[in-house]
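Trying the structure run again after the queue cleared.
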Amino acid sequence: MNLRINAGPYLSYAMFGRDKSIDYAYGGEMHSSLGWWHQDFPDHFTYGGKAGISLESDHFIYTIGGKCSLRKKPFGRSVSLSAGVGYKF
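Done. Tokens:
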């Protein structure tokens, strides 16, 4: 049995996709449009801290982890939690 504890900073970048933006000043009504990723290049970077723990047996791996973004976006900071089970051959 192995127990691993992970903690530290992270930096991520979203490479592809389109962002949906909402323009509230369009005739008093909500209007949405799709933009390509290169139009808002700096907005695709996210950074923060992450931590996790994993338990490894002979064939199974159990993990629990989470990360918190330190970059404030228009709707607040993002927090994600994850859990997983793996099998080693």
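The longest strand covers residues 2-13. Worth checking whether this holds up in the mutant runs.
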